[in-house]
Amino acid sequence: MYSKQESQQLKREFWVAFAEKYPRKWVLYDTKIKDFSFKFYIDNKKAQVLIDIENRSDEKRVAYFEKLEALKNILEEEFISDLVFEKNHTLESGKTISRIWVEKTGVGFSNRNNWDIIFDFFFTKMNALEMFYLEYDDFIKDIEI
Length: 145
Prior knowledge:
Layout: H1 4-21, E1 36-42, E2 46-53, H2 58-70, H3 72-79, E3 84-90, E4 96-105, H4 115-141
Antiparallel strand pairs: 1-2, 2-4, 3-4
């Protein structure tokens, strides 16, 4: 078991190693849509690639989610097939967001033997989501509220 400090250091090493293996600029928060972001998540049980829609206005949040849901068939057939669509996802803080995600279970950052598997998962899935977004961003951004 790692101390909190050792765990934080290992996580830093994990992210540095990922950036060295796949040196590129990711879209992540630079979507040009307020509170609409792409995220990487890792703990000691799973790795996830996420789209989080965290708009304070439930109406806007749901509108963006429904835009993505309308493109679900294209997204699954042409980009990434194993996504989970969650219109109302509750964070630990109690905040409700919309989330679209894919995960790989049975891997964790504390086992360095998993790192290449996780890095490849992160790259493949995030790259697919970004390619989808860059192709359909004009449609996604065009909501009526």
